[in-house]
Design brief:
The complex is a heterodimer of chains A (173) and B (169).
Chain A: E1 4-7, H1 13-26, H2 37-44, E2 52-57, E3 70-81, E4 85-95, H3 104-118, E5 123-129, H4 133-140, E6 145-146, H5 147-151, E7 153-159, H6 160-168
Chain B: E1 5-8, H1 14-27, H2 38-46, E2 53-58, E3 71-82, E4 86-96, H3 105-119, E5 124-130, H4 134-142, E6 146-147, H5 148-151, E7 154-160, H6 161-167
Parallel strand pairs in B: 4-5
Antiparallel strand pairs in B: 1-2, 2-3, 3-4
Classes of the chains: A alpha+beta (173), B alpha+beta (169).
Chain lengths: 173, 169
């Protein structure tokens, strides 16, 4: 099947938002999506964007039954390692179920890798849920290492009331 | 010893920042993995588009370290993005020299970072910790941090440079 991988535009934000919700549903966390396509637009297309996004688009004749031609996306940003410098972090990679198995996921990820290469990034990182075997297999097939397993790294989060409380306690000097 | 100043890092601080990065890496038993240079720290942190932000903890000259340093701690962070909740503050590294630990410096740094997160409209602060580092894990959990690897099953994956270049072809 023919498809194109291209940079997202502000007009794509409604589609990106739709696919973000689809992915969160697959990850069994749909109730955790709090932001809308307007916030995505504000944060991704301002002067210093907080993320970058690639879209996988199919021609009209292959559009979904709901009329969508944007059928996949990869959302990523730069991070920084104090050991190695600039890195790229792929936050989301998603292809609509009926378009899987056609190389779209691989093409999206290769495109992220290409951006990482152009920016001289030392590595690409991402996170996967431990029950998500199809995704883990996909990444392992591309030489990804599970650092939680091999080196014991855990992801910690600090939010809500705990974050607010600490912030209020910050000394004023 | 409560007298210290927490301030934004400046270009002149890159030598100290790299020294502290290497000390922390040594503590994590990964010292040989630090390949970053002062030149890269300078370009990447103080150029037109900074890839990171840094706070440094500085003591007065009369409290300088055994080796004569007055910059005795640092925290490096940057902004990331969660498509579900928006901007996040990601804490990359956070370290206070052992001879200055136990005086509340780490706690002070952490509070300042939290304040920055809230002021810049971040929904939360994320970071990673090695599971054997119980001292750090306790520090964070005492302040309300959730372990997403344990609670939700998130695993960190990495593709190194060689494999990245292979994929980019």
């Amino acid at each position: 099947m023919d498809f194109t991988i291209r940079a997202a535009t502000p007009e794509d934000c409604k589609d990106i938002s739709r696919m973000i919700i689809e992915l969160s549903d697959y990850e069994k966390m749909a109730d955790q999506v709090k932001i809308s396509h307007e916030e995505l637009k504000r944060d991704g297309f301002c002067q210093n964007p907080f993320y970058q996004c690639l879209i996988a688009e199919v021609p009209e004749e292959h559009k979904t039954k709901d009329g969508h031609v944007n059928v996949g996306y990869a959302l990523f940003f730069y991070t920084y390692s104090t050991w190695k410098g600039k890195c790229v972090y792929m936050e989301d990679l998603y292809v609509m179920p009926e378009f899987r198995g056609k190389g779209i996921g691989k093409a999206l990820m290769s495109s992220v890798a290409k951006v990482g290469k152009e920016q001289q990034c030392a590595r690409l990182q991402l996170s996967v849920l431990d029950w998500n075997t199809p995704s883990m297999d996909f990444y392992i097939a591309r030489d990804a290492q599970d650092l939680t397993k091999s080196e014991g790294w855990h992801l910690l989060r600090f939010d809500g009331a705990a974050l607010d409380k600490l912030a209020e306690e910050a000394p004023k000097k | 010893m409560a007298d210290f100043n927490l301030r934004k890092a400046e270009p002149k601080d890159v030598t100290d920042i790299l020294r502290l990065i290497k000390e922390l890496a040594k503590f994590e038993e990964m010292e040989e993995q630090v390949v970053l240079t002062e030149k890269e720290l300078l370009e990447d942190g103080f150029g037109e588009h900074p890839f990171y932000h840094c706070l440094v903890a500085e003591v007065p000259a009369d409290r300088r370290s055994r080796d004569g340093h007055t910059v005795v701690g640092f925290a490096m962070y940057y902004f990331t993005y969660d498509p579900w909740i928006g901007k996040l503050l990601y804490l990359e590294d956070f370290y206070v020299m052992p001879e200055y630990q136990g005086y509340g410096m780490g706690s002070h740094i952490f509070k300042r970072l939290s304040e920055t997160a809230v002021k810049t409209r971040c929904s939360s602060m994320h970071f990673i910790v090695a599971e054997w580092n119980s001292k750090s894990i306790e520090f964070y959990k005492r302040r309300g941090a959730a372990d997403l690897s344990l609670e939700e099953g998130w695993r960190l994956f990495e593709i190194d440079k060689q494999s990245l270049l292979k994929m980019a072809k």
